[in-house]
Design a protein that fits this description.
Chain lengths: 455, 455
């Protein structure tokens, strides 16, 4: 069994961090509950629920996507994802974690082809007109493919983007335009799906029962990953391996159960803010993906029993060491309302040696590497927070590969499902966003919609 | 007087938003206090404190920087800022707000020069070895300038970056390397300053008494802005105009006083989280800049009187409409622990028309623009939050120009200084980050440092 991650939670305990930490007795109760909920989850899964848990095993889908990606890579220079929320964050997370840092910013720069000629990836998760116009200016439409992703097929931002792009493509490429659009939607329903069938676009499916924020390992995330050259088989293998680890029936052995317990208990102890702080530029967007998963899944007005509870931890994304110079002051000295999760990387691809320095002021850096400095800073910060009585724990990744990232994302999804059960809410819906949509439709003059009509 | 911004706070009032809103009486007390503190601030300023308030008037500095920038632009293709925290966030904010969205991602792409040949700007605010190695790979050192920014001249991350870059430059360019480094530091002190004097680098000064997070309008932010083609005179003119508005002695007329009161009162009413949500991709990094300013300034253990208070709102960055599909569910239904500030833009540079759509499902979008959709979404969200009893207010910018952004940043700084006084803390220090630094030095084996020595 290959190690995907280790979780060190000693700084969550009263013995280490003081009165804001948990006693072993305090941990036991949610631990027992979470193991019971794990059983429930397994039963529900075997009854056909929680299809996101089975995404790692979609071998045929992965093969189809790899073939499609290979075909696209033979002629395409730019791959644009049009999607928002769950249709974008997973793509961004995979791309940032697993491709070289300047992958999509450099095509051919100053005449020098600096990277393998994989297409550039753009994930456009906004309708900002200046950004969208700016993007369109940089594209050569003849060599560009647009992947329109919307579970419902009716997401207003994505549909608006799609309509603009479709017209541009038609104008510039005529009937051949259809091979520049690929839709990823519900397998049966939705306006976009119907249109795709009519016009003859390539179609991918988001399996029934897989919600947007749980869809990264479905075609939603897999196509852009494969197109950019990420090994999606390894990604799914890591997730499958993590599936096994997330079925273990002790708190210590099961990182999803442990993470859910630590987060739930922190909330109950008044830590309503949860900070995820990777010490890695590549994992920054994994933090943003997690923030959606956590916020939208757990922020709920009603319990599953229909009681008004207004529950939900607020996730905050940070990144080390950058935010030591931005947020750490608050984490060290502000209210005791936070729990901090570090993401640490054992082994970076590069180390980057800091040269011997004759200037005595900087002598202490001689012989170190940026990788070593990064870890010293993380450890230094972790220790300082612990000394200051601030609960924190660390998830260590051995390295950042498709296998490890697949496992990490899978673990966070299982953790979220279990946390939903601990909080007593439904982590798979998002009823609270309806009112804003209705208002927007009303303001746009759409028939049958009135401002405030959901109240 | 040119309008820089408007602030609409009706959704902060009990009449509009319900019991989580403020009554006029509740607003009066902090209003009176804030106006008294405004007097205090003015007196302190006339006694030589708060030099950041006078940055808009540094005409000679601006002229020097423009000349330097013009010279650099004549031969340079890449300008790299090495800095972290306050030495980076302002640069990123200006660059993202005021340059075209793909400005620095495209030099010459696929043989087509798509933008004016201004240099690309890279702000490297991390020591992530993979990112740093990736950056160095994309640069042509002969045409690159590194701006090393550190107030103290001893920031460990920046010094490490600098040492690596210096050696690379020396190896590849010999003695001519010195013209590829510009330092921006304290005018007198610091190891970096001494080294710059010895080696003969171009030197810029951060005026005495201007802390990192208040330095965006000093050479810290101005040089990279000027180099990228931003009109720094307009930037400073907007700030100067805002200086006048922030001296007005009524709550309604003074946006900094009003903002400080609204935020302070929200905190006192249990809203410990403050969300800044621009509906603009260009202003996203202004949000990140604000998060540092707010967190590091107000997150404090001790009051100015020496009492332990552990105070500090937690700023959260969001962006619309993207985070409607990520965080809004939590904001709508979660705990009543947030106040939300929208940043709205009246007029984007592009509008981007959505084509007439024969597909009836999408007919309601016909005739709208992305800009119009953006504002309908913001309004729809604002109304939904208000209906759900969630206090929020909106800062409207007429458009995103250097003048308006200069004014906005200046306003936030004054707001922070005043909020510091309302909270009874010192918003200009950051004692809490010392412990982490000491631990890091100890872990690196630096002489004279021990883990936990600050406890």
């Amino acid at each position: 069994m290959k190690e995907i991650l280790r979780l060190d939670f000693r700084n969550m305990l009263r013995d280490t961090v003081g009165r804001h930490g948990a006693t072993p007795a305090e941990l036991q109760k949610p631990g027992r509950q979470a193991l019971r909920y794990l059983q429930e989850l397994k039963e529900e899964r075997s009854n056909g629920q929680h299809q996101f848990l089975d995404l790692p095993y979609q071998k045929e889908v992965a093969e189809k996507i790899k073939k499609l990606a290979d075909e696209l890579r033979s002629w395409m220079t730019d791959f644009v994802v049009l999607g928002i929320g769950g249709s974008a964050l997973g793509n961004i997370a995979l791309h940032q974690a697993l491709n070289p840092p300047y992958h999509s910013q450099e095509g051919k720069s100053r005449g020098v082809l600096r990277y393998a000629p994989t297409p550039r990836i753009h994930v456009i998760d906004t309708i900002d007109p200046d950004l969208f116009a700016g993007l369109l200016e940089t594209l050569d439409l003849k060599q560009t493919v647009f992947n329109v992703i919307s579970k419902s097929g009716a997401t207003v931002e994505t549909v608006a983007q799609f309509l603009i792009v479709k017209e541009m493509l038609k104008k510039s490429l005529g009937n051949a335009y259809t091979k520049h659009i690929i839709t990823t939607t519900d397998p049966e329903d939705g306006a976009l799906r119907r249109l795709a069938a009519k016009e003859g676009y390539e179609k991918l499916c988001i399996p029934k029962g897989v919600g947007g924020r749980y869809s990264v390992l479905s075609p939603v995330g897999l196509l852009s990953a494969a197109v950019s050259g990420i090994d999606i088989n390894a990604l799914l293998a890591g997730a499958a391996e993590m599936d096994l680890q997330c079925q273990k029936e002790t708190v210590e052995e099961n990182p999803a159960v442990l993470g859910a317990c630590l987060q739930y208990l922190s909330y109950k102890k008044g830590k309503h803010i949860t900070v995820l702080m990777p010490y890695s530029a590549a994992l920054k967007a994994v933090g943003e993906w997690f923030c959606q998963l956590w916020a939208e899944s757990l922020g709920k007005k009603f319990s599953v029993k229909g009681k008004i509870i207004h529950c939900g931890p607020t996730p905050v994304k940070a990144v080390g060491p950058t935010d030591q110079h931005s947020q750490l002051q608050l984490y060290m000295e502000g209210p005791f309302d936070k729990v901090i999760t570090f993401l640490a990387v054992d082994k970076f691809k590069s180390r980057v040696k800091i040269p011997l320095s004759p200037e005595t002021d900087f002598e202490y850096l001689s012989g170190h590497t940026l990788a070593g400095l990064m870890e010293a800073e993380r450890r230094g910060t972790e220790l300082a927070l612990t000394q200051a009585g601030r609960p924190n724990y660390t998830i260590y990744l051995p390295e950042i590969t498709a296998f490890h990232v697949g496992g990490l994302l899978y673990m966070f999804q299982v953790q979220t499902a279990l946390a939903g059960k601990l909080f007593g809410i439904n982590p798979f819906d998002q009823p609270g966003v309806e009112a804003g949509k209705v208002n927007t439709f009303a303001l746009l003059g759409r028939k049958g919609y009135k401002v405030g009509a959901t109240e």
